[in-house]
From TrEMBL:
Location relative to the cell: Endoplasmic reticulum membrane; Microsome membrane
PROSITE patterns in the cross-refs: CYTOCHROME_P450
Superkingdom of origin organism: Eukaryota
Protein name in the entry: Cytochrome P450
Organism whose genome encodes this protein: Henosepilachna vigintioctopunctata
Binding site for heme: 448
């Protein structure tokens, strides 16, 4: 009896101690971030109400906030009780992301953990480091080379769909999204989504999960797990995640059985290389077989992470590039000329060497990602005090939000920022630019592991489109209103007309 009371007192005391430490820490951060400029918030809710509304209103609210503090480079906002500093100056961003010190993701990424677990996007510390090392080899050039067949086949399939919409107003995003989802599913898991009977349920669940994640970030009281637990979305999320995990588990099990046969040979590397169609999943299974620190759960986390990071990001990049080129006929013609110079009249599918030569096209993609970076905001947990260029100190313990979209439109970094000008990315024009002034794929050690993959995929699809069609605009680019969920979007459908050359 005495012993159990003693344990009870000890446990209670320990909890009280932890709560006090956390509270004192919170007050200390609150005091420090109050020195930053920022709009006045409400008690407890902070600035949350400013970021409520439909996705277009939220997008605009963020813009208004950032513009107000453009010249300072940073400002503070309270998302419910969570302190955040928003950063849009390349020097400050470099301090944040240049090394490994702040490579832990902020509380906003907790919303993705139920689905992605401790996958590459959401993990931190040593776990992230060893996974990153392992996964970097799965994105090796020779593996990407194999994916080219898939990109080429799916690009051809996509233009067959466009053929059914010639000369009419076409909303491009759903067509492109299908293309990128098919491509990422086959390259990461080795299966054709369209051939699976539960494909629609899986596709819809990815979409629904994105909605819940975004909703939790904007209604930031739902970031607190103990509040989210009492919402309807918590239970909805549980059902969605069951569907997503069951799908990946099923595919992984099937692939594992097939792979056993390939692994029988001692020299598994050679066997993998000889395999007709390699998937990122095969590389992870091989790593597991070779004793790397990854179990079945870890493999699923990474496959889910590729599915999440690798389809919407690329789909909006392709769609915005088409929209911008529809509005810039001269650039479109330059791309066509370049395609002719590489392929002539030949309709053959691009090789990697061909893609390397499409340098003007690459500049157009880069300029499109400057104006419409697929991921307009990213975030980090700050692990050490960071002095900013303008004399403030971002305190350890708060979340930093990196405003990629707004930085890419700063006139001091990009004169006439709204003008679509691919030549900004000519080598000679990049020399004087700060290395952190252009970061559509993030930057530093935690940059996007899939950027070469993405560039290859985008170039394949643009080649197939522009060698066949001229794209005419339906809406002027200046009339397009953006909105946001997990990626940047447009308020209205992204309409354009495809005319056969
Ligand atoms: C145009 C296409 C893409 C863009 C603009 C893009 C952008 C980004 C950005 C901004 C990040 C940093 C995210 C953060 O810190 O929160 C990121 C990370 C990541 N991306 Fe991409 N991405 C693209 C395509 C892809 C593709 C195709 C894949 C996979 C095949 C991929 C896989 C990843 C992964 C796994 C991470 C996490 C890396 C880490 O934390 O170590 N991305 N991407």
């Amino acid at each position: 009896m005495f012993l159990s009371s003693l344990i009870g007192v000890f446990v209670f005391g320990w909890i009280l101690y932890r709560l006090t430490v956390q509270l004192l820490n919170w007050f200390s951060i609150a005091r420090k971030i109050s020195k930053f400029p920022g709009r006045k918030g409400y008690p407890i809710l902070g600035n949350t109400l400013e970021f409520l509304g439909n996705p277009e209103e939220i997008f605009n609210a963020v813009r208004e906030n950032v513009r107000e503090y453009f010249s300072i480079g940073t400002f503070r906002a309270w998302l419910f009780v969570f302190p955040t500093i928003w950063v849009h100056d390349p020097e400050d961003i470099e301090k944040l992301m240049g090394g490994v010190a702040n490579n832990e993701k902020s509380i906003l990424y907790n919303t993705m953990r139920p689905w992605l677990g401790n996958g590459l996007l959401t993990s931190s510390g040593q776990h992230w480091h060893s996974r990153r090392k392992m996964l970097t080899s799965t994105f090796h050039f020779s593996i990407l080379q194999q994916f080219l067949n898939i990109f080429n086949r799916e690009s051809r399939h996509m233009v067959e769909i466009i053929e059914n919409h010639l000369n009419e107003e076409t909303n491009i995003l759903p067509i492109v999204s299908n293309f990128t989802l098919e491509s990422i599913c086959e390259t990461s898991m080795g299966v054709r989504l369209s051939s699976m009977k539960d494909a629609d349920e899986y596709r819809n669940s990815i979409h629904d999960m994105g909605y819940i994640v975004f909703d939790r970030i904007t209604r930031s009281w739902k970031l607190a797990e103990y509040i989210f637990f009492f919402t309807r979305d918590y239970w909805r999320q549980k059902r969605i995640i069951d569907i997503l995990h069951n799908f990946s588990n099923k595919v992984i099990e099937k692939r594992k059985l097939q792979s056993e046969r390939y692994f029988e040979n001692e020299n598994t590397n050679t066997t993998i290389a000889k395999r007709k169609q390699v998937a990122l999943l095969d590389m992870l299974l091989l790593a597991q077989k070779q004793g790397e620190d990854i179990d079945d759960n870890g493999i699923r986390e990474e496959v889910d992470t590729f599915m999440f990071e690798g389809h919407d990001t690329t789909a909006v990049c392709i769609s915005f590039t088409l929209l911008l080129l529809a509005n810039n006929q001269k650039c479109q013609e330059n791309i066509y000329e370049e395609i002719l110079s590489v392929f002539g009249e030949d309709d053959r599918q691009p090789t990697n060497n061909d893609l390397q030569e499409l340098k003007y096209m690459e500049r157009c993609i880069k300029e499109s990602l400057r104006l419409y970076p697929s991921v307009p905001l990213i975030s980090r947990k700050v692990s050490e005090d960071i002095p900013t260029k303008n004399g403030y100190v971002i305190p350890k313990g708060c979340s930093a939000i990196i405003c990629i979209y707004d930085m890419h439109r700063k006139p001091d970094l990009y004169p006439e920022p709204l003008k679509f000008d691919p030549d900004r990315f000519l080598q000679e024009n990049c020399l004087d630019r700060h290395p952190y002034a252009y970061i559509p794929f993030s930057a530093g050690p935690r940059n996007c592991i899939g950027q070469k993959f993405a560039m290859m995929e985008v170039k394949c699809v643009l080649t197939e489109i522009f060698r066949r069609y001229v794209i005419q605009p339906v809406d002027k680019i200046e009339d397009i209103s953006c909105s946001i969920d997990m990626v940047i979007r447009t308020k209205n459908p992204m309409r354009m007309k495809f005319i056969r050359r």
